[in-house]
Write a structure and sequence with these properties.
This protein has 11 helices and 11 strands. The chain is an alpha/beta fold. The strands form 2 sheets. Strands 3-2-1-4-5-10-11 form a 7-stranded mixed sheet, with helices on both faces. Helix 5 (143-164) crosses helix 6. The N and C termini lie far apart (60 Å). The structure holds adenosine-5'-diphosphate. Adenosine-5'-diphosphate binds at residues 12-14, 44, 75-76, 79-80, 104-108, 110-111, 114, 129.
């Protein structure tokens, strides 16, 4: 393996709060250890279209507290093709970039894995997605901030739901995973979470809601994970409205506001630890691994494992939510 002198860094796919903290930690740790750093703008697209600049410690000053990503992010169809990836490799070589740090979610790490299987490029991934759906890490960068944003929003919806004695279906992000919906429900005292990992019939849900109102609750909040499996909040509310017209039902889709905002302390610290660990990993000769956080320890997770689709939901939390919704 050739010696690494220059490291390229990019953010790709869906943005997540804490990406900037990760960019800062990677850049400064790399420079501290004697590497040169190049910032690649707009993810894989910028790698192909040559949007690359030298990064100094000052390029990452005053960004730790900001959501989004100073490197911008993009989705890139061209990188899904062999020609696109060849082009990306040629541009990398032109800039004398010897290794890559890819900050992103499941798709971005799948791209990294594919690229690394075709070219002799050491790549280290950082898990950054609000969905928390990467295997081998307890938390992803951005998840805690999104969860806090959901909590903030649902608390406010609860005020109006209680005043009007309404049933609210609140849709949260999560792609194919229910982590945000389940943890969001626990954090807000919601009556239920509808998640793709666990199927529930409309009748069962209605019974739960009915019990609540019978036991003198005067509002009901159900968090719904966006997913074709759950049908989303609109679909579910429509079915409940048709079969149970006695409820005053409303829907709120939180949407992209879940992606923004200043990262929480937890996300900043996670991104910082992971960013520094990514450079340690390269120094140790690791390649094609994602940095994970398991039981508060940094772990290296091979890409093939990280992008598995079956990161399990904690069934104990599901049971706790059920017990507390009486
Ligand atoms: P996220 O990282 O948030 O999951 P996406 O799924 O949109 O985001 O993926 C980001 C980008 O990663 C895609 O636009 C594409 O350029 C690249 N990518 C994803 N999957 C692959 C793949 N199997 N092969 C090559 N590139 C991929």
């Amino acid at each position: 393996m050739a010696t690494i002198k220059t490291i390229g860094i990019l953010t790709s796919g869906g943005d997540a709060p804490g990406m900037n903290a990760a960019i800062r930690a990677v850049t400064r740790s790399a420079i501290y250890s004697g590497f040169k750093v190049k910032g690649i703008y707009r993810g894989y697209r910028g790698l192909i279209s040559n949007e690359i600049v030298d990064f100094k410690p000052q390029n990452v000053s005053n960004i730790i507290q900001h959501g989004g990503t100073i490197l911008k992010t993009a989705r890139c169809k061209e990188f899904m093709t062999e020609e696109g990836r060849q082009h990306a490799y040629d541009v990398m070589k032109q800039h004398e970039i010897d290794a890559l740090i890819v900050i992103g979610g499941d798709g971005s790490l799948s791209g990294a894995r594919q690229f690394a299987s075709e070219f002799d490029v050491p790549i280290v991934g950082l898990p950054a997605t609000i969905d928390n759906d990467l295997y081998g890490t307890d938390h992803t960068i951005g998840y805690d901030t999104a969860l806090n944003t959901i909590m903030w929003c649902v608390d406010r919806i609860r005020d109006t739901a209680t005043s009007h004695e309404r049933l609210f279906f609140i849709e949260v992000m999560g792609r194919t995973a229910g982590f945000l919906a389940l943890s969001g429900a626990l954090a807000t005292g919601a009556e239920a979470a509808i998640i793709p990992e666990i199927s529930i019939e409309v009748d069962q849900l209605a019974e739960l809601i009915e019990n609540g109102f019978r036991n003198s609750k005067n509002s009901s909040i159900v968090l719904v994970a966006e997913s074709p499996i759950t049908g989303g909040a609109m679909g579910l509310a429509e079915r409940v409205r048709t079969e149970y017209p006695q409820y005053d039902t409303r829907v709120t889709i939180l949407g992209h506001l879940q992606r923004g905002g200043s990262p929480t302390a937890q996300d900043r610290i996670l991104a910082t630890r992971m960013g520094a660990a990514a450079i340690d990993a390269l120094i140790e000769g690791q390649r094609n691994v994602m940095i994970g956080d398991h039981n508060d320890q940094i772990v290296y997770v091979p890409f093939s494992k990280a992008i598995r689709k079956d990161k399990p939901i904690d069934r104990d939390l599901v049971e706790t939510l059920r017990r507390l919704s009486i």
